[in-house]
Amino acid sequence: MERLYSLVDVARLLQVSPLTVRRWVLEGKIEALHPAGTRLYRIPESSLRAFVGDEWWERIIQQRGDRIQRQRGNPRRQGRQHRQRGNSQWQGKQYRRQQG
pTM for the full model? Predict the structure, then answer.
């Protein structure tokens, strides 16, 4: 199965803004999948290869391919999930607010 990239992943690989990648998709320069009812775009690897060329694609993956895996996830969002899971200190503050 072919690998699919998000707009943010492609932006990191090509070192451009995600808005630039979205514009390229809307202009038809890069082919992308757009599931109905969502705002998400998924860009197949073959479309990226066609856009930048095979030789450049290999260079980009060698130089920056690991960057995608390292930067996944939002640390701020992980913090909120941690508080919701049951950090006793956070629950204590909520309890005190309800009592006061």
Answer: 0.62
